[in-house]
Amino acid sequence: MNASNPGHPEGVGGGPLVDGPHDPEHDPRASYVLEPEYVASLTERVVATTGTTVQVTSPLDGAPLAHIPQSSADDVAEAYRRARIAQAAWARTPVAERAAKLLRLHDLLLDRMPELLDIITLENGKARKHAFDEVAHTALTARYYARTGAQHLATERRGGLFPVFTRIDVNHVPKGVVGIISPWNYPLTMAISDGIPALMAGNAVVAKPDAQTMLTALVAVKLLDEAGFPRDLWQVVAGPGRELGGPMIERSDYICFTGSTATGKLIAQQCAERLIGCSLELGGKNPLLVLRDADVEKAAEGAVRASFSNAGQLCVSAERIFVADQVYDRFVERFVARTEAMSLGASLDWEVDMGPLITAEQLETVTNHVDDAVGKGARALTGGSPRPDLAPYFFEPTILEGVTPEMACFGDETFGPVVSLYRFHDESDAVARANDGEYGLNAAIYSRDGERARAIARQVKCGTVNINEAFGATFGSVAAPMGGMRASGMGRRQGVEGIHRYTETQSVGTQRVLRLSPQFGLSAERHAKVQTLGLRLLNKLGRA
Ligand code: NAD
């Protein structure tokens, strides 16, 4: 495996933020530094009066990057107070004006690409190319809702009780203030993209990004400000989720949560207590199926991206690969070869194919899963070890064979660069094994026969299924709903579903001419008879 050393190659970032080793006496590890003024210009957007800060370190070198001011429960209350005031005015802002700001955001995201890629990579450690995916996804989302929002939010006419005499208008009115709690793995798009349709629909947002990736979320908030959104419309609080989650849910009209299934269940309980809605985008143990008629080279290429994008810290990444007997050996040879050709590194360089894990905890989980599997008899066909020579929390891309149900990585989400291979003889057995377990987020199927693969997709219990692609065909198609079945979540982001979740559906019925009470001196009995005749007639006419 190639390895590019951590470092700061001249001009790699292209952004203005990174400035060589600093203070090497005190922190000899530090390879990257952010200008204090730059950090201050971002953190001033956090509603925080506690006077305490939490240090963010970079997984590229384990050195400090910035200090983030921390919010209290009172700060959360203040953020909601400001957001409510801003929302009342925003709900009256014409939809076309909201859309124009989103298009400005789209352009700003592309214009500020180097800065965004630097910050994402510095904070998260991911390969720069995977940071690019995030910026692209956020821009796609902004453009999609800018161009379709008016249509999704338009008042709809539906059939009324009495044709002609009852008019029904269905309005989509904003919920109010939406709380967004997001994880660290895709720190830009998870922090911002779910808020884009919320704003488009006339809501305000209070966001609590993950503590480890606050800077990325804050750069994005600066871009929202620059795009012309009223400043108070998007509030940011910082702190541990278990402390700020409760105060947020108490004051929110809706919660959009992305993170682990365990936390998602806690959030669902608290939302139920208040009878507010929530969308929960949770974990997965995603299967990838290589059918007997698959293009093996294409499947191997897809399997590398499916398993190792963002070092496997991706909710839709494949952790289980089921391969038909007929192509198993060829697939495994190509998959291992492609994995071993990956360029591993911890830098801002475009050439890196896979970066480090984000934290020591992530490294511990991944190491435990691999050690447990190998200790119980699984074989690592490639990888299998941490690589502290590359970065403090680096773990090699790892392909396991011989994984059995008593091993933790058989059914538990690893959320790292570890994938297990399983051979199958019979497709229906492969589908049953793919559906095994509690999750149902994403699946991939490789086959030369699209028709057959789409038929199999209907039997897979996952919210998204990609054919001849790892995950990008669905995730990148922002007009299509995305989310999990079973323990992988509730609700959907993207598409019309992704904006309607932030609205209340309101039906307005206008009754004209014909009254609903008996008319023309009819008794209640005669009135019921006339109505019964009417019901029979409408059925004969084929009305809904
Ligand atoms: P996590 O649940 O620990 O944390 C996610 C967010 O929730 C963070 O902002 C955290 O501060 C906050 N939080 C933690 N405890 C909380 C509580 N009690 N109340 C309110 N908020 C709380 O998840 P994580 O480990 O940071 O993220 C990884 C997980 O997220 C994986 O399981 C992954 O599959 C999942 N994920 C899912 C999607 C998706 O779209 N389905 C996308 C990305 C990540």
From TrEMBL:
Annotated InterPro entries: Ald_DH/histidinol_DH, Ald_DH_C, Ald_DH_CS_GLU, Ald_DH_N, Aldehyde_DH_dom
Basic and acidic residues bias: start-end ranges: 20-29
Assigned EC number: 1.2.1.79
SUPFAM superfamilies assigned to the protein according to its UniProt record, in alphabetical order: ALDH-like (SSF53720)
Record domain Aldehyde dehydrogenase: where: 49-508
CDD domains: ALDH_SSADH2_GabD2 (cd07101)
One example GO MF annotation: succinate-semialdehyde dehydrogenase (NADP+) activity
Gene3D superfamilies registered for this protein in UniProt: Aldehyde Dehydrogenase, Chain A, domain 1 (3.40.605.10), Aldehyde Dehydrogenase, Chain A, domain 2 (3.40.309.10)
PROSITE patterns named among the record's database cross-references: ALDEHYDE_DEHYDR_GLU
Keyword DNA repair set for record: no
Record: active site: E281
EC main group: oxidoreductase
Origin: domain of life: Bacteria
Keywords of the record: Oxidoreductase
Region of interest called Disordered, as start-end residue ranges on this chain: 1-29
Family: Belongs to the aldehyde dehydrogenase family.
Name of protein: Succinic semialdehyde dehydrogenase
Top-level taxonomy: Bacteria, Bacillati, Actinomycetota, Actinomycetes, Propionibacteriales
